[in-house]
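Re: [help] complex structure
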Amino acid sequence: MDIGFSPEEQKFRDQCRDWLQTHIPAEKRPLNADEALDFDKAWQRQLFEAGWAGINWPERYGGRGLAIVQQVIWLEEYARARAPWIGANFVGINHGGPTLIVNASDAQKAFHLPKILQGEAIWCQGFSEPGAGSDLAGIRTKGRIEGDEIVINGSKIWTSFAHVADYQELVLRTEEGSQRHKGLSWVICDMKAPGITVRPIRKMSGQVEFAEVFYDDVRVPRDNVVGGLGNGWAVAMSTLSFERGTGFIADQVKQSQEVDDLIATARAEGLIADDRVAEDLAQLKAEVSAVRAMTYRNISEVEKRGQPGPEASIIRLFTAELGQRIERMGVRLMGERLLDFRYGDDDLVHDYLRGFAATIAGGSAQIQRDIIGERMLGLPRSR
Amino acid sequence: MDLTPKDEQETLRSATVDWLADNMPLDQARARPDGIWQGMEDMGWFGLTTGAIGLDHATEALLFAELGRFLAPVSAISTAVALRWSDTEGKVALSLGERILDAGDTGTALGLFDGKAGLVSYQAAAAEPSLDLSTAQIILDDAPEPVLLSAPEAVLHFRLLTAAYAVGCAEAAGAMATDYAKIREQFGKPIGSFQAIKHMCADMAVRSQVSRSQLYYAACALDGGDPDVDFHVGAAKRLADQAALENGRANIQIHGGIGMTDEALAQFPLKRAHLLQFIAPTAAAELL
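Output below.
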């Protein structure tokens, strides 16, 4: 075992660092999705043109086809340089795109993947519904097959970037009367199609980023089904592991910076003399360090076996809860100044309020613990 | 960069587990059979990182985590550190100041004195049981005068191996609880099917994974002369101590009534965790 990087990897790291140093946008990324759209698209375009988008995507679709280690190095340097969040491109780059790479037809890949990488097409995710949150198999949005079209009726919710998106990865019930995981399909839905209504929802942080989406006789070509009609559950699950792979390393670097900032603040304001504060800060610093160790282990596992082990669920859960502990520490050190928060004006308070999403979105902390208990430890199913 | 054990490390690890399962089962933790120390010495565990064997700390940490899982004598830690950094041959007990752990069959102990590793000599005396039923202790009348070891790495080595023991201890508690949750039935079902129990088991797995990962990183940092090695080894010890303590407690809760008894084994990892937390602990200030 070793934690060193080869000379080639080190060279790649230097290249990442040099480019980021001179290209990170000077202005801050706007908070709300509609105001941030132009910023996000321009930044993604810039990343693509310099060869930093899709480092581990296939070359024929505009990626670089490099190993996972390079992807990790890039993400580490990206976070270290405090480069902006990829924002509206998040779903396409981290979820929709990888799902297409694994499951889509050549024609679908050739059309969509370059657009995603270049920041030309914004994607959103249509999984959750008012009645299907943690119980995702309870999806009720329907797709009726009519000739070579699918006619969609129903609604989705908590859809990030829906009001600025061009396409949606939409999971719906295409088989009348089917139950649970059966009869679902994963469909590419054009968000500009007639019959779609998007109602943005403001979060308690003040940010407008996610939305509710209504479908009223929306027609999409049957060719937009990815991975075969009725295979939606398998397609959706095939790439959940992408979310549980390398992505945490950027969180780790960011969390490490946040903890160092908190320690500096606590020193400057004399709060570190309080033993409880010192204990908790030391704890956070040790835990953040362990996230890097866990992620490196996970990546080593992927290099050896081609996919992350079930332990990736542990990293996801731990990173999410650690992020919240850091945010809560930040708020604790603020004291009463917390009460002066106005929507949009304090990053720390904003992150604290937005951070509740970390243990809710994409599989709640409770569902993650079920997954760890059942798939990793072999405990009997709860449901 | 590779933080998974290589094949040869895995081979050594499984040979270690096989020997420990045969010779050091947990149900004999109260009274180890005669000759166990000689058996451990024959396995070569005390000199893994000496010039004669020349393995790295990563391999050593991997094997010491297994020793910790079977609640092996804590003097294996002090013996390995003393052999590596002072060429002291034979068994070396572990000193927490005037408290000498695993004191039998030797008159030398290794401990930390004002943050530096040192050796002390003491007169043999009848050992008394400690909270950890697998570890006997004697208490000296006066604080011993140490001969300090010159190598600064000795402290890191001492802390790393103790962290490895704690990682194994945490995993032992987690495995014991999870195995029990699969077979113990209430309301007509294994209790592990209930989320209240399942999520406790999941949290134990999280703590084990967190502490084992940091242990690997710390061992590699020591092997590679990383500038942040002090931090990484300190963090490993802190996280491992917490994992061992919290898993030890959760294990007893999941066992219910039987977990509280003297007869059951559930008490062993918890009591060992309490012992380990006093060996080379990491203070908050060392990490800030």
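The radius of gyration of chain B is 19 Å.
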